[in-house]
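anyone seen this seq b4? input:
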Amino acid sequence: MNFNKIIENNRNNVKNIIRLITKEENEDLEQEVFIKAWEKHPNYTEKGSFKSWINTIAKNLSKDYLKSSKFKIQSKAINDELTINSIKDNKNTPEQQLIIKQRQIRTTKAINSLKPKYKEVIIMYEIKNYSYEEISKKINCPIGTVKSRIYNAKKELYTLLEDLI
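predicted toks r here
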């Protein structure tokens, strides 16, 4: 029995089975499958194909791996790391707070510099979160006019605040 040929013929299949069950690449587990096959090959009886026998070893070792404490500790460490990385630091540094404040002041000045009809609709739409319909009713204008004014207000604000964007 040429074991190098057996490994060569079954490597991809074993790798795919392990990946399918464990959801990861695991070369150690692949090696373990072939070591187990080499150790147990004298017990192999030709009831089925040799390939399916190795596949069964791969499936069983993959399932055992998932049950093992090593896997549980490793996956808990990964989950803990992901949790820590996903927590955002909500505290801004004094420099960040200053930059935010300056941006707010510039934005407020830019809005206040708009024509009154643009200022009114942009405040209702962007700050008060009114819909086009609500704005249309409040200022007694067609929805098309509201959309046009919002568009023009945004265009003007973009020009005034281009360096902040």
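The mean pLDDT is 83. Helices lie at 3-22, 27-40, 50-67, 69-86, 94-112, 116-127, 132-139, 143-160. kinda curious what u guys think
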